[in-house]
């Protein structure tokens, strides 16, 4: 995983429009069945090479909705985010 959308998601769609690699899907396509948007870990690049910070979190109107998560099979990730930030699910934008 790279970033995670929490259950505070209001399903507004702002994050989907901003993702440069189309890693985010809406609640209808969420493989977990939850009624929130979902980030495909194997696609998310944390906007490395695209933006200074994850554009989904910048666009999201819900404070703390998008958080850092463990690095999984994602092709790129930010080296400046600590394991502690990821394990504690620190918000990407505060």
List low-confidence stretches.
none
Overall body shape: globular
Task: Compute the separation of the termini in Å.
Answer: 20 Å
Structural class: alpha+beta
What's the SSE pattern?
Answer: EHEEHEH
Rg computed from alpha carbons, rounded to a whole number of angstroms: 12 Å
Count the DSSP helices. 3
Overall strand count:
4
Structural account:
Pfam families: Fer4_7. It comes from hydrothermal vent metagenome. This is Ferredoxin. InterPro entries: 4Fe4S_Fe-S-bd, 4Fe4S_Fe_S_CS. This protein is of the alpha+beta class. The protein has a single domain (1-94), classed as 2-Layer Sandwich (Alpha-Beta Plaits), CATH 3.30.70. It is 16% helix and 11% strand. The chain contains three helices and four strands; from the N terminus they run βαββαβα. 26% of the residues are buried.
Q: What key attributes describe this structure?
A:
single chain; 94 residues; alpha+beta; Alpha-Beta Plaits; two-stranded antiparallel sheet; two-stranded antiparallel ribbon; 3 helices; globular
Condensed summary:
The protein has 94 residues and is of the alpha+beta class. Helices cover 16% and strands 11% of the residues.
């Amino acid at each position: 995983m790279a970033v995670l959308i929490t259950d505070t998601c209001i399903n507004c769609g702002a994050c989907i429009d901003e993702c440069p690699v189309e890693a985010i899907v809406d609640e209808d396509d969420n493989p977990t069945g939850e009624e929130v948007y979902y980030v495909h870990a194997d696609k998310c690049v944390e906007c490395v090479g695209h933006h200074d910070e994850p554009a989904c979190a910048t666009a999201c109107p819900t404070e703390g909705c998008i958080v850092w998560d463990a690095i999984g099979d994602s092709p790129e990730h930010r080296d400046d985010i600590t394991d502690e930030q990821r394990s504690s699910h620190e918000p990407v934008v505060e």
